């Protein structure tokens, strides 16, 4: 009886760990998708394909300021081998650099929220925020073909 309870407990712990690992991956992917959704209209504004809209820019910058602080905490060692992720092992090998890039994006977005008042300041400041995406993706995300 004790052995059955012990085995059942171990199995439950294993299932719980797998669910938690999956949940962490899903959480960080949701944060990234939210950032991607904000990038599309902002990118269109940068290219002149959509009219400048300060409210949309500020909404996007708010997401860019908040989400990186959240997602850098969602890479526990246990999620290193998770399936269905584009995260590279470099995240865990260079954790401080990864977290630093997330913090920089957050800080740059917060600074841009204050600095952007019109289309001219938007075109000057927004690239500073968006370059953080590329810096992180180039080093810490699998390339998709």
Question: What this model shows, in words?
Answer:
- The chain is built from 5 helices and no strands.
- The chain is mainly α.
- The chain has a single domain (2-140), classed as Four Helix Bundle (Hemerythrin (Met), subunit A) (Up-down Bundle), CATH 1.20.120.10.
- It is elongated, with a radius of gyration of 19 Å.
- Mean pLDDT is 88; it is low at 12-21.
Proportion of residues in helical segments? over 70%
Radius of gyration: 19 Å
Q: Under the CATH scheme, which class?
A: Mainly Alpha
Sum up the overall morphology in one term.
elongated
Q: The CATH topology is what?
A: Four Helix Bundle (Hemerythrin (Met), subunit A)
- pLDDT averaged residue by residue: 88
Q: What are the segments in which pLDDT stays under 50 over at least 5 consecutive residues? A: 12-21
Distance between the ends: 53 Å
Order of helical and strand elements? HHHHH
Number of helices: 5
Look at the helices and sheets and give the structural class: mainly alpha
Name of the CATH architecture? Up-down Bundle
Quaternary organisation of the protein chains:
single chain
What fraction of the residues are assigned to beta strands by DSSP? Answer: under 5%
Q: Tally the structural domains.
A: 1
Main β sheet profile: none
Number of strands: 0
The name of the CATH superfamily reads: Cytochrome c/b562
Keyword list:
about 140 residues; mainly alpha; Four Helix Bundle (Hemerythrin (Met), subunit A); 5 helices
Helix and strand arrangement:
Layout: H1 2-46, H2 54-71, H3 90-93, H4 95-115, H5 119-140
Helix pairs in contact: 1-2, 2-4, 4-5
Organism: Microvirga arsenatis
Pfam families: Cytochrom_C_2
Protein name: Cytochrome c
């Amino acid at each position: 009886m004790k052995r059955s309870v012990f085995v059942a407990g171990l199995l439950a712990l294993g299932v719980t760990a797998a669910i938690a690992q999956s949940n962490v991956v899903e959480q960080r992917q949701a944060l990234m998708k939210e950032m991607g959704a904000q990038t599309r209209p902002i990118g269109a504004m940068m290219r002149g394909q959509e009219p400048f809209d300060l409210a949309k820019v500020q909404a996007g910058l708010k997401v860019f300021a908040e989400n990186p602080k959240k997602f850098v905490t969602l890479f526990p060692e246990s999620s290193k081998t998770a399936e269905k992720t584009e995260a590279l092992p470099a995240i865990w090998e260079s954790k401080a650099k990864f977290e630093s890039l997330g913090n920089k994006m957050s800080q740059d977005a917060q600074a841009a929220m204050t600095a952007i008042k019109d289309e001219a300041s938007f075109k000057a400041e927004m690239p500073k925020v968006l370059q953080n995406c590329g810096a992180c993706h180039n080093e810490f995300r699998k390339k998709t073909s």
